[in-house]
Each structure stands twice: as C-alpha cells, then as structure tokens.
Design brief:
heterodimer; A: alpha/beta; 6-stranded mixed sheet; 9 helices; 6 strands; 16% strand; globular; B: alpha+beta; 29% helix
C-alpha cells in the first residue's frame, strides 16, 4: 500500500515534469542548524536580486531562522555580470574534490526562475540550555526553543510543496548524521531533486571530500556562502538540476 | 540510575500501524527507555517521528537521539529496506560515531 502510494507520487511528479512543467520552481534550502542556510539564501538574493536585500539574519546562535522565509521570483542568470566574476567561479583551495562520481549532466540553459525558501534548521532535539550557553536569559531561551520546535515542523511540512532542495552541510562537521540521512532518504523517496552543498569550504578544517564519501550517490558542490567561493559552479548545477 | 532498553522485533513493529508505531516508540523514549527496532524505520517514518517529537518537546524532554543504518536498496533499486534504528532520550543518549555499518553511542544517567 505504502509502496503503491510512493510510486504514485513518483509517477505524478514525472507526469508533472513532462507535461506541466512549472515556470517557477520552489527550491528549499535545508540543513542542520548553523550550516549557513540563511547566508546562502542572502548570497543568492544579493547576486541576482538586490545586493542590499536580506532574506534573513544569520548569527552564531543556532535556530536563528525559526520561520520559513520564501523569496519569490529570483532569476538565476548565468550570463549576469555578477556570475561572470571569476572569483565566483573558481575553487581557491587546491585540496578540494568537488563532485560525485556520477556523470556530469549536460549543460543547462543559462536562466532559471526560482522561489527560494529558507527553512529553519532540522534537528531531533532542542534544549533551551543550549541557547543559554550563548548568553540568552532563561525565559528568552525557552521561548526560542519553543519557536525552534515549530520551525522544525514547518520545515518538514514544506517538503510536501517543494520542487528541489539545496541540502546544506557544514564541511567542518561530520556529515553522516541521522538528520542528513533522513532528509536525503525522504527526498529520494519523493523523487525530489537535490544538490548537496558543502558549505564553509573557506575554513582550514573543512573537508568536502568527507561529504562526497558519505553521500556518493549525490552531486556535492563545495562553496563558501560567506565568502562567495565557487558559487558559479553551484548556480550552474542549479540551472541543470532544477528545471 | 538504571536505563531500560527495549528491543522490539520486526514482527511486533509490522503489526502496528504507522501512527501507532510512532506513538509506541515516543512513549517508550519519553519514559527514559532506549528503543531498538529490528528492521528499523523508513526515512519517511523517521521524519514523522522527528515531527511528532517536536510537538512534545518541553523543558524536561528536549527531544530524541536517533541513529540507524542507511536503508538497503532492493527490488531493482526502487525499494529501500530499513535495517535497524535506535532511538533514545536526547538527555541520556548521544551518538559519538556513526558510519555505514557501525553506530557507537554513549548512554549516561542524568
């Protein structure tokens, strides 16, 4: 019964992709807390919409984003001057291995219209004491913890309405967490296209290769959302994968 | 302080509906038990369990620690067969190392 339901989901997605292709794809930015989801969303908006517009605030305190934020009508244009900037297209670190062993898909078109959904960080536990360690008062920490649990639920519910996912992982952390495995398993089961993004590659302890090894069946793009490193490769992959 | 472990057979798990299964697991974990499921939970069930857990997080129950082996693919690579899932209260259980075929966790009384 469940299998039939899943197959039906795959079939309807296939039919939709063939005959009812959406003009604008809804792309969710998913990942654990503090992976850099909002920083990436802001980077995309700064590059293609308005360099003064922020989708959200990023801080070192986990669960800063506790409500999903949707930014509509973002036109990814690979021919725009900001993407032609060579700084965005190169990987400065020589020890980075970038993508999976899967064959490279053919070159996509240069433009892609998206709605970007910056989702709250996914977690299996939210302890208000963790926020107090960042200097929050107990009352504020409890409030934030409550909002963070609601954020996780909202992020999960968004999966029902999303066309593609940028799954962000902190390249300095162990990627083989149950949350990452569960997200990838759900995306595979729903046939939702995913690009794994190894963020924070500018840090000395970053190891995108560890992410490639953990999820060899997926394309992994190493970037630094903060510094803008290798964003050109990510944008190119997005135009291939999310149309 | 003693910590109880419940090892649940695949037959017991399969005899329950999806919602009943998740309720059974979460009730066990909220009582302070480590629940080990033979056969494991699918990714979709684990996501539902995380969602259910988030509705019940409070000052005394910060959530769960969940660990499991990645599902094996079978039936022409279409069907993903879960293997084993371990779920415990986040307050007492912490996964310290995990790869494709090994899960190391520490359990400490509060």
């Amino acid at each position: 019964m469940k299998l039939r339901k899943r197959r039906k989901g795959i079939l309807s997605r296939l039919l939709r992709a063939l005959f009812f292709r959406k003009v604008t794809a809804k792309i969710g930015i998913y990942g654990p807390p503090n992976a850099g989801k909002t920083t990436l969303a802001n980077r995309i908006i700064h590059t293609f919409v308005d360099e003064n517009e922020d989708i959200g605030v990023s801080t070192e305190v986990p669960h800063e984003t506790r409500l999903a934020v949707r930014r509509e009508d973002v036109l990814i244009d690979l021919k725009s001057k900001s993407v032609q900037n060579p700084d965005l297209n190169t990987i400065p670190s020589s020890n980075v291995t970038s993508t999976s062993d899967s064959p490279k898909p053919r070159e996509g078109k240069s433009k892609l219209k998206l709605d970007i959904v910056d989702t709250p960080g996914l977690a299996t536990k939210i302890d208000f004491h963790d926020f107090m360690a960042f200097g929050l008062e107990e009352k504020e920490a409890k409030k934030r913890a409550k909002e963070a649990t609601e954020g996780v639920i909202e992020a999960i519910k968004w999966l029902d309405d999303i066309d593609g996912v940028l799954l962000l992982m902190d390249a300095t952390e162990d990627p083989y967490t149950q949350t990452n495995i569960v997200v990838i398993g759900n995306l595979e089961a729903r046939s939702i296209p995913v690009i794994v993004v190894a963020n924070k590659m500018d840090l000395a302890e970053a190891s995108p290769q560890r992410i490639v090894d953990a999820f060899p069946q997926h394309t992994v793009i190493p970037i630094s959302a903060l510094k803008g490193d290798n964003m050109g490769e990510l944008y190119r992959e997005m135009t291939r994968r999310f149309r | 302080m003693e910590i109880k472990m419940d090892l649940i057979s695949v037959d017991k798990i399969n005899s329950m509906g999806s919602a009943e299964k998740l309720r059974f697991i979460l009730d066990g974990v909220k009582s302070g038990n480590i629940v080990i499921l033979e056969g494991g939970l699918t990714s979709e069930e684990q996501m539902k369990l995380i969602e259910l857990t988030m509705t019940e997080v409070n000052d005394d129950f910060p959530g769960i620690e969940i660990s499991g082996y990645q599902a094996k693919r079978s039936f022409f690579n279409l069907r993903r067969k879960p293997r084993l899932t371990v779920i415990g209260p986040a307050k007492v259980m912490r996964t310290i190392k995990k790869d494709k075929d090994l899960i190391s966790a520490v359990v400490s009384a509060v």
